[in-house]
Design a protein that fits this description.
The protein has about 160 residues and is mainly beta. Helix content is about 0%, strand content about 35%. The chain has a domain at about 60-155. The chain has strands at about 60-75, 80-105, 120-130, 140-150.
């Protein structure tokens, strides 16, 4: 009798598809055999002492006073005419005095020691910056020159 389109499939299992068990080997004769031994040459430790010290201080500079020129700038129209009714008065600084924060007089640690200088050995660094003066032009009139303005918050 024919089975028609139905076919029965039966899997075939071969006896050698499983891996063979690992063989156990006897332990080596000498347990130290196969290991590398590192031995020293009797050298002595050389110890070098080093010392490093760094000191840094940064403070905000404070403006103590400034020298200014007072100028009046008039409105200049596109066609070149000057409107004297419309103007702005400006102060143009040409010299500014500043003081930095206090710092050690020697600029760092006392030479040969790791100690900073005593509190009495401090200075205030001062700096002066110069700027270009305002120049007279057809729409700029200089009202005052070299007026000194002091900063009340600078404790001078």
């Amino acid at each position: 009798m024919m089975a028609g389109f139905e076919i029965i499939v039966r899997p075939v299992v071969f006896p050698n598809i499983r891996p063979t068990p690992a063989r156990s080997l006897p332990p080596p004769d000498d347990p130290e055999k196969g290991f590398a031994t590192i031995k020293g040459n009797g050298a002595k430790l050389v110890s070098l002492t080093t010392s490093f010290s760094k000191n840094m201080s940064k403070s905000r500079s404070v403006e103590t006073k400034r020298r200014v020129d007072v100028a009046r700038v008039y409105q200049k129209k596109k066609d070149g005419t000057i409107n004297k009714e419309n103007f702005v008065d400006v102060e143009v600084a040409n010299k500014i005095w500043k003081k930095e924060g206090k710092k050690p007089a020697g600029g760092g640690y006392i030479p040969g020691t790791d100690m900073p200088p005593s509190s009495g050995d401090v200075t205030e660094e001062r700096s002066i910056a110069f700027y270009k003066r305002v120049e007279k032009a057809d729409n700029i009139e200089i009202k005052k020159k070299d007026e000194i303005k002091k900063n009340p918050e600078a404790n001078e």
